């Protein structure tokens, strides 16, 4: 307002640019007090940000009636000044009333302030930690936004009043923060210094001040933190209270009680920040407090600070805890951890270096839980080695560093944070897996059904080369192993190997080569591990490849291995560690079936006979052409020829070694009539005839459901494979075995011309039994076709074990044949003859008629 009393309150649109304007006094008086333009804003119209236009609008609304009454009358110069003075007086009273009403109507002011006040934090940093709290630097933008006020009257009065006041200055105050839903407990107090802000609508005031923050009820802070960590906190209401002394200019507004309630829920609630473990390293370190070495874990963790907050966290101590057997039991301490100083920058990646030391393993940590084979440590390690995330619990230690204020220690020691601990998969950690000196054992016939002894068993030496995770930089020694393993062939399961008892082992660390990580070589000898065949089809394919394929095959092993490991902390048991590998298996034969067995039968003994059967025992020598050994408690195999079962063979308690195997006792039966029927009887007769005649014959060996005790499916599966071998040669007692020598039961013959008789040198392979010849109907030939003579003799005579001579048998000469002429020419000398005929043989109760065809028999001719 001008100092000139004659100046109008509000001029026309052509206002003077200076108080020294050259316009005449008459011009001033002729200028209207208020413009009558229809565009002049009304009081109830929207108010813009120009304070002078707002005041003009308010004044115009108040004085419009005065202008309407006096604007058209023609008065003198002195007459016009009195209405102007009256208008100014009225306007002043109105303005004072508005100001007084705005600042002394608490309800309106409070409503406007609550709705229009906007504070946008731009930065929060911790200047320093004190013994009682934190000195924080707070930076924010302050403004009043009238558009947020819903009530028009409150908005207009508030805008007008704040435009008049322009600035408000607060005195130093304390802001107390409460949690209404937690018993209205005090969680903290902030000391706020004097602050001056522009309260006009839309004007922004930058705030930058230091505030001392002090924690309140630590138990309440702990309860809220635990509810948040446990996921029970879906929203939280915070109430701030303060008594603030205010003034505007030189006018004091007294002490105002301010209360503000905020609700945080949904996305407004901060979440536990996601983190990445960028480094994890385990190593041995000396622990002076216990006078020996312990295990240290160094880790680097990165996480993102998404808030405009800057501060430095001093070094802190933490306890690393694991879950007890029962969820209700207290956590078990695993290690002590320490963090280095952490610098947190606004909206940036934060790096945290953590060092934890395990000096010993407590008894509750390694003791098996009730009703379980696993301890809390087993459960933790089990998840880790399977690549599954587990959970450890981090709690602030009650012992603090010298530079850490006690109030921080009290807070962090009362809060336990669950931290996901990522596992480390050990898949493909096995670089090489080999099984040597393999030994197989068939089921024990005296074993209890269902027991391990009633299953096939495998023994051998296992050598495993396993890669060590790069994080493991400490000495370990594997002392024992046990496992359950699935055996697969071409991706399909064959069976299970169950090593239920601990097997001794030793190991050595191998230095890294070619840039790869370090490895560990584990040696273990397994004994009598039961093999359970679960898929007969797959097992049949494996046997077919091993027996007839002639080349190695590869079995896949998927195992869960329990490992006893000696470390600086003592002996640890890592249970159910997954291990995958392959086992090359050498063939049982090299493609020729079992022809290289080269069996030889000796010391044949007849045990019992019937009219159609014989039970006998023999010592068998053979060659094992494979790299495998075996123990056979009991096995029974059918003996076949030309598709018919002629008998069976049984072996008990046989140890099969590499190379030559001698003196194996085998019991066998010959009973084609019972086992194969009339057809088998004919085939058996034919086989015996061919065998004694020196033909190359073969026997087929085939398992059946009862071949292996308690394993009918295994015997049935093996029965798919018919193993053929040449019929073993039976040699007379005292003869040197010759695998190339054909059997010949007639060693020589002596013909007597004058008496027309012949006697034969016979060879019996039986050492303990006598054979009886019941009948002979045979013809001797020269040069295979020329008959010499015929013998038809039906008086029984015996053939004792070994070499013997038959009685003189009558010969009916073929006088008109060339063969007889050759006999006479050979008088006093020798010649080679052939013989063909039928012979009825009796051995105790067993009787059979067979044919015989011999060639190259050395014959002597006598008078």
Please characterize this protein's 3D structure.
- By secondary structure, this protein is of the alpha+beta class.
- The chain has six domains: 25-103, no CATH class; 117-268, Immunoglobulin-like (Sandwich), CATH 2.60.40; 275-421, Immunoglobulin-like (Sandwich), CATH 2.60.40; 430-583, no CATH class; 595-730, no CATH class; 746-862, Immunoglobulin-like, CATH 2.60.40.
- The protein is 19% helix and 48% strand.
- 19% of the residues are buried.
- Residues 599-713 form the Tag1-like fourth Ig-like domain.
- Residues 1-10 have a biased composition (Polar residues).
- It comes from Amylocarpus encephaloides.
- Residues 1-50 are annotated as: Disordered.
């Amino acid at each position: 307002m001008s100092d000139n009393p004659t100046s109008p309150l509000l001029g026309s649109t052509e206002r003077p640019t200076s108080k020294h304007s050259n316009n005449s006094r008459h011009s001033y008086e002729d200028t209207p007090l208020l413009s009558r333009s229809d565009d002049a804003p009304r009081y109830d119209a929207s108010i813009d940000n120009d304070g002078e236009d707002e005041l003009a609008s308010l004044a115009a609304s108040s004085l419009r009636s005065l202008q309407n009454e006096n604007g058209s009358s023609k008065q003198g110069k002195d007459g016009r000044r009195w209405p102007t003075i009256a208008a100014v007086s009225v306007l002043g009273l109105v303005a004072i009333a508005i100001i007084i009403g705005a600042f002394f109507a608490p309800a309106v002011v409070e409503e406007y302030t609550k709705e229009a006040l906007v504070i946008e934090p731009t930065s929060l940093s911790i200047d320093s930690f004190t013994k009682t709290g934190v000195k924080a630097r707070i930076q924010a933008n302050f403004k009043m936004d009238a558009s947020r006020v819903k009530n028009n009257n409150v908005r207009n009065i508030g805008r007008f009043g704040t435009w008049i006041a322009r600035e408000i200055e607060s005195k130093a105050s304390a802001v107390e923060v409460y949690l209404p839903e937690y018993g209205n407990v005090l969680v903290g107090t902030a000391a706020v210094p004097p602050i001056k802000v522009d309260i006009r609508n839309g004007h922004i005031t930058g705030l930058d001040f230091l505030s001392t923050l002090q924690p309140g009820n630590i138990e309440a802070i702990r309860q809220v933190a635990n509810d948040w960590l446990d996921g029970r906190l879906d929203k939280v209401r915070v109430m701030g209270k303060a008594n603030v002394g205010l003034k505007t200019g030189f006018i004091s507004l007294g002490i105002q009680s301010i209360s503000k309630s905020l609700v945080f829920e949904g996305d407004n609630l901060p979440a536990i920040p996601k983190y990445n473990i960028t480094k994890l390293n385990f190593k041995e370190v000396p622990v002076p407090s216990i006078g020996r070495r312990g295990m240290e874990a160094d880790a680097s963790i990165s996480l993102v600070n998404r808030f405009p907050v800057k501060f430095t966290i001093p070094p802190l101590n933490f306890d690393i805890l694991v879950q007890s057997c029962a969820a209700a039991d207290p956590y078990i301490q695993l290690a002590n951890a320490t963090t280095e100083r952490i610098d947190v920058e606004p909206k940036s990646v934060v790096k945290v270096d953590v060092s934890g030391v395990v000096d010993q393993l407590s008894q509750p940590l390694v003791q098996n839980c009730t009703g379980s084979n696993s301890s809390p440590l087993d459960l933790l390690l089990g998840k880790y080695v399977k690549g599954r995330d587990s959970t450890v619990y981090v709690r602030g230690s009650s012992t603090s560093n010298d530079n850490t204020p006690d109030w921080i220690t009290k807070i962090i020691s009362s809060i336990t944070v669950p931290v996901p601990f990522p596992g480390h998969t050990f898949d493909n950690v096995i670089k090489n897996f080999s099984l040597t000196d393999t030994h197989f054992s068939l089921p024990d016939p005296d074993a209890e059904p269902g027991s391990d002894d009633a299953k096939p068993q495998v023994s051998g030496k296992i050598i495993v080369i396993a890669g060590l995770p790069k994080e493991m930089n400490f000495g370990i020694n594997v002392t024992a192993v046990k496992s359950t393993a699935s055996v697969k062939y071409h991706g399909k399961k064959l069976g299970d190997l169950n090593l239920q008892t601990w097997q001794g082992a030793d190991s050595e660390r191998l230095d890294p080569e070619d840039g790869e990580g370090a490895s560990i070589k584990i040696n273990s000898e397994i004994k009598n591990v039961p093999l359970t065949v679960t898929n007969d089809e797959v097992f049949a394919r494996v046997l077919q490849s091993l027996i007839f394929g002639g080349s190695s095959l590869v079995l896949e092993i998927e195992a869960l291995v329990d490992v006893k490991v000696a470390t600086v902390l003592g002996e640890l048991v890592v249970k159910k560690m997954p291990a995958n590998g392959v086992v090359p298996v050498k063939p049982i034969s090299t493609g020729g079936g079992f022809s290289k067995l080269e069996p030889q039968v000796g010391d044949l003994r007849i045990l019992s006979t019937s009219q159609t059967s014989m039970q006998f025992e023999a010592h068998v020598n053979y060659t094992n052409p494979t790299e495998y050994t075996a123990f056979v408690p009991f096995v029974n195999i059918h003996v076949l020829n030309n598709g018919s079962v002629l008998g069976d063979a049984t072996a008990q308690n046989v140890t099969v070694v590499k190379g030559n195997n001698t003196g194996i006792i085998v019991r066998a039966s010959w009973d084609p009539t019972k086992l194969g029927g009339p057809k088998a009887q004919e085939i058996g007769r034919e086989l015996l005839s061919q065998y004694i005649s020196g033909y190359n014959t073969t026997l087929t060996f085939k398992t059946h459901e009862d071949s292996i005790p308690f394993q009918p499916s295994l015997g049935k599966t093996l029965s798919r494979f018919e193993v053929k071998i040449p019929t073993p040669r039976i040699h007379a007692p005292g003869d040197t075995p010759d695998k190339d020598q054909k059997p010949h039961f007639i060693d020589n013959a002596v013909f007597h011309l004058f008496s027309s008789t012949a006697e034969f040198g016979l060879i019996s392979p039986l050492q303990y039994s006598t054979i009886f010849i019941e009948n002979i109907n045979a013809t001797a030939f020269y040069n295979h076709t020329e008959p010499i003579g015929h013998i038809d003799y039906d008086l029984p005579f015996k053939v004792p074990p070994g070499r013997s001579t038959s009685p003189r048998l009558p010969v009916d000469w073929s006088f008109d044949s060339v063969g007889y002429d050759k006999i006479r020419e050979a008088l006093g000398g020798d010649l080679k003859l052939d013989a063909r005929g039928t012979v009825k043989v009796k051995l105790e109760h067993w009787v059979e008629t067979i044919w015989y065809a011999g060639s190259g028999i050395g014959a002597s001719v006598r008078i």
